[in-house]
What we know:
The structure is a homodimer.
Chain A: E1 6-11, H1 20-28, E2 33-38, H2 53-58, E3 63-66, H3 77-88, E4 92-95, H4 105-114, E5 118-120, E6 139-145, H5 152-165, E7 169-173, H6 177-183, H7 197-204, E8 212-216, H8 228-238, E9 242-247, H9 265-279, E10 284-290, H10 297-311, E11 315-316, H11 318-321, H12 324-331
Amino acid sequence: MIPTPYLLFLGDAPDQLAAKVAQGIKDWRPENAVGQFRMEGCGADLSLTDMTLEEGKAAGAKTLVIGVANRGGVISEAWKEVLREAIRMGYDIASGLHNLLRDENDLVAEAKRAGTQLHDVRVPSVAYPIANGIKRSGKRMLAVGTDCSVGKMYTGLAVDAEMRKRGMKSTFAPTGQTGILVTGRGVPLDAVIADFMAGAVEWLTPDNDDDHWDLIEGQGSLFHVSYSGVTMALIHGGQPDALVLSHEPTRAHMRGLPGYTLPTLEALRDTALPLARIANPKCQVTGVSINTQHLGEDEAISLCEKVEKEMGLPTVDPFRHGAGRLVDALDAI
Amino acid sequence: MIPTPYLLFLGDAPDQLAAKVAQGIKDWRPENAVGQFRMEGCGADLSLTDMTLEEGKAAGAKTLVIGVANRGGVISEAWKEVLREAIRMGYDIASGLHNLLRDENDLVAEAKRAGTQLHDVRVPSVAYPIANGIKRSGKRMLAVGTDCSVGKMYTGLAVDAEMRKRGMKSTFAPTGQTGILVTGRGVPLDAVIADFMAGAVEWLTPDNDDDHWDLIEGQGSLFHVSYSGVTMALIHGGQPDALVLSHEPTRAHMRGLPGYTLPTLEALRDTALPLARIANPKCQVTGVSINTQHLGEDEAISLCEKVEKEMGLPTVDPFRHGAGRLVDALDAI
């Protein structure tokens, strides 16, 4: 668990895109962000209050979250001056960077002196169990994609937001570093040892109230040969009651795999559902989530209508049009 | 790579079963075993020549392989006396124990002094790549099981042995610690980080001659919810041209999962084959391997005949009856 709320460190981000982790926190957990910390030359702006480290502390921030990608794969000395100062003031530091905070001796030494924590969310901090497959109480939704990076995290977050708005019981269960930083907890599944993947998902989504929903962040795709094992562990460890099919309609090929075309939504349904029913015989496919960010408004709506007719399932872009109809379908099972 | 040949350390094994790693080496790579080393009270005997460490050295042994399970999860002082002496004499030590050699400071210090290696085959020693999915030359077979521990390794080893006998080009590609100790190389797939599982299998079975077969050791089962992600990575990283379905007919439930029944061979075929065809559209199911160790001779034969008729595929217990018919089918594709 990463202590919240956060002060969001944008550093010297060259542009808005470089600060997408911070953007995710602001979009989905604005209550977790007391303000933003920007260095000279920062090209990103989340329209949060600019704060010094002192002002962030005074506003209640407990953790300085690195909400920006670093350049060239090193944590620069300019960044580290700020991070060391923050640690001395009692902040925890949280990071999803490939370069780990724990590998920076000066930060480790400061944190030891100050008694604060360094959170590298890319690496597991828990000894996960081997999955036992025992049916858990409560309900679970998992987004499964025709490819990687098609909007599975946003689907889960949007469904969670809509459920909270309706007063339903729900928890977004992150399985990647951005989601973990957004919510302050989760499992960095792609960094878990193979034998413990499904067990890590069980650990993340334990027994709960019968009317509680875990919205599990999907990873990879059953059709993406580099990462399909991770997806498989999510399907079996997650024991989903509901699958939402996620798709990005403008891909020419599977992400990073020029020789592989995307499956149809029908193929995804027919592959994922029987596998999910091994762990949860009652699992259903309840909806389709289309990432229409590269389509115009009319095109987006007509594509959703077309897919809805073909698949016989509520079909929306939850980020663009809201997740209401996905939640209606989940609430009905 | 573990230097061969080996002297097989049986220690104070209480019985034959405790020495099953050594038994596997003797069964499948007798040329790798110059002899056995037994301590007082050893209840196992592989019918190899009993040798001292000196005699093993003189016979050409390069590595002392711990071919026995340790009791109580500790490497005893009695064992370590032998291991230290072996290291001083220039042996490498290889182990598949849960307790790692590298965690024993005295062994590490001796190995450093002697300039020999400690091989813990349960932990990866290679930084595996992320799978790229690019089609590789050569042919590959993967055994997929209705459950864990149904004879997938023995199927691969038996097919490899039969191919060698026929003068075909083949390599057994181990993905677990026993197989790695048997052959001296391989990937401990259950200990690989999730993101690199499929890449590790690609690494293990690179481009090869068009008429060369990699016989990839299967792990887990698509129907075993604890380990299915590992199986999935083998199917996609392995790009098999041929799947052999493996089954143990006397299981009451999935191994370690009392709530889960075994799938039928038909269900295994219909689940595994479409997934395999994502990575290799030409993949076929070429045979069935039944582990009949708990059946009498008549029962074993009549079961194989029955399954052969139902599945329309060559069906044998390769350990009991030889892998000839499985190899015939592989050679025909």
